[in-house]
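Why predict the complex rather than its parts? Because the way molecules touch one another can change local conformation, and only a joint prediction can capture that. The input here totals 552 residues.
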Amino acid sequence: MDLWVTEYQTPALGFSCKSSETLRIEKTPFQDLAVVVTEQFGKMLLLDGMVMTTDCDEFVYHEMIAMVALNSHPDPRKVLIIGGGDGGALREVVRHPKVDKGVLVEIDARVVQASRDFFPQLACSFSDPKAELIIADGIKYIKEHKNEFDVILVDSTEPVGPAVALFSPEFYQSCFEALKEDGMLAVQSESPFFNSEVIQMVYGGISRCFPLTDLYLANVPTYPSGLWSFTVGSKKFDPQTIRSLSNQPLKYYNESIHKAAFNLPNFVKEIIGLDV
Amino acid sequence: MDLWVTEYQTPALGFSCKSSETLRIEKTPFQDLAVVVTEQFGKMLLLDGMVMTTDCDEFVYHEMIAMVALNSHPDPRKVLIIGGGDGGALREVVRHPKVDKGVLVEIDARVVQASRDFFPQLACSFSDPKAELIIADGIKYIKEHKNEFDVILVDSTEPVGPAVALFSPEFYQSCFEALKEDGMLAVQSESPFFNSEVIQMVYGGISRCFPLTDLYLANVPTYPSGLWSFTVGSKKFDPQTIRSLSNQPLKYYNESIHKAAFNLPNFVKEIIGLDV
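Output of the joint prediction:
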């Protein structure tokens, strides 16, 4: 008998994986959490029915949310991650040779626990000497920190449930204030094919706070449409220019991908109001 | 009541679209053909259960299979398309200002008919004065033509059913011989995430015939993993360099996408044996 786990990526589009085992299913104080074993992608973490990460393709998202800002900032010593409780983005941060400290602020301790229990290749980051794990509301945390971080990464779920406030202009202003005078923010900003209004909201919100705003793309097969966007806000440094050392070895990111990721298809340029 | 059409992109991965209507379902002499109306992507053409094209994302595949070779060849006057019976690649070819003649050789007349009946934005190409439509076996056709074409595009299905021979070294040698002395071949070569062995077969086969071989990528949300590869074989001209005029306007392709598409993630470089 085949068991299938289906994410409805939109109300009209289902993404179904053959599954051999359900490792965890629970209601946390913040969301529904599940970990299943899929034949196609290995272990898969879902929150509120949406695929967050899998063994087989986690490298794309985690490398690409972290490495672009880390490598375009000349001296990314202190890095803050909001969300990202699986630890994957933190893994890339603490591996970076210039980083002294990676602080991860996750609201839901059960996400961290699921990662510790089932995703050792992600959760390994929590025990790194450079890492600090804080279970707290990222919105509140960031308001209490000013002029402190070189890079901030926002590794959120979609703008539903606990993540809604992470897509607001007020939050981006708080990020701006928590960054040092040459700091850089990178956030996941959904699919250009399915979520153009989210991209416009994020790009517009960050543009209103930061002098430099830019969008880049990566290919995540378990995310809706397979094409994912990230938006960078920078106070000083052009995020398209590489200035610091790379982690090695990586599976997706390299120097030419860093630059190529900012080259947008015409329909994506149109979403953010750029000339085609 | 919701009706759903599911493509099993792999034996362990289903891609399901909510569907309001089945416009056609038939067994042609070569394959199973269906046209359905989906809520997410508009009308969708399926062959042997695999999504071939949809109203909403056809632009990516058709622009990207055609424009890279057309724009890197300095004088693409005579172009041959093998397969591509929906007419989408032919549309891009005959719109190109340097093209005098676009010949399409499709084995299955019922694919052409389905396009004429349901995809007018693709089938419009058949009535272009530059276009010639031939219903014939592409393998046989290409063996009978030598030193004739500037560019050949192979717009095939997956290497199952009638398309198997379109992935063979003998076929690439026939393409080489059908091209003029500075000609260029571009073929669809499947997903780097799911079909690495197909990419190796295509890249290896083309490399054995052509002095220049290169791989480039594009994002097609209705194809497995959303990331799709194309392989170019060239007798003389570097396919990464733009030499002739572009079609305008386009929805995906632009000059920076042309160059960026050749920048490969490390795991894709490894598939084709390039240093990372």
